Amino acid sequence: MPLTTPTVRDLMLRAWENHTAIPGFNIPYLPMMAPVVRALRDTRCFGLIMVARLEWVKFESGGPGPIHAEYQRQKDDRFTRLHMDHVPVIDEDNLQVDYEADLQEAIDLGYDSVMVDGSRLSLEENIEATRRIVARAHPQGVAVESELGAVMGHESGPIPPYDELFASGKGFTDAAEARRFVAESGTDWLSVAIGSVHGAISAATRKEKKVEARLSIDRLKEIQEIVQIPLVLHGGTGIQKKYVLEAIANGIAKINVATAIRQPYEALVAESPEKALEAVYDATVQMIREDLELEGSADVIYPA
Ligand code: 13P
Predict the structure, then answer these.
(1) pTM for the full model?
(2) Which of 77, 85, 174, 299 is catalytic?
(3) Spatial contact of 191 and 146, defined as CB atoms under 8 Å apart
(4) What is the CATH number of the domain that holds 234?
């Protein structure tokens, strides 16, 4: 093992340079963390344990503090780091969020990386919000992810039929805007909108099966050619596999997964908490091994 522990920023760069990816798994219920860490270790896959603001507002993750405390109990430095996912400036219900306070809390607690989501803002406002978080995070050695374009699905209202959405390219990240955004914001990683959608999270729809999304690999290539930083794919559940593999080959270095491991937990927890945890383990292994083909990735990006 190297003498110094690599930062998550180093590991993301290594994943990106090697055309592999780091999966991030969302934890909306604290007990889910243990089987996710176990699955990462058993598949020798390096991954991120993540929580998004909506997972303590609308689910039962408890907040940045409880997630961090559980992470201290479960973590395995060889295979995991802790990431604060989506803290939006404007949330999925169009409400203003005190995003700087939430992200400062995560930075102070010792999260390895954080995401500021200014994707519902204008380009200029998104750059400004991201710069503010970079200025807080970088002096503490914390990496920053941000988003440009709209990865839809978290909103409670209906979204257009998927085929229409994909064909129109509505909300897709614009490559020229991405160049300016990255240069001016100082972000380390950029979440791009290229066809994926988030799994629904409103109480009425969260059990629904996701659409099998496609990706515009052409748009991804265009963005990656002029933006030379690791790119992030949100909405990782249910994307057609050939697109995911092509995306990893073309600059996607991190893939966020929530619905694929949440739904099996929710389906079983009332009947048997033990069965629910085994289902989380099985779904995480399946995602790493079959859907993303990332088994053994730790040996590539974090060689012993
Ligand atoms: P899914 O729910 O589609 O897996 O998306 C997760 C995600 O992008 C969280 O940021």
Answers:
(1) 0.97
(2) 85
(3) yes
(4) 3.20.20.70
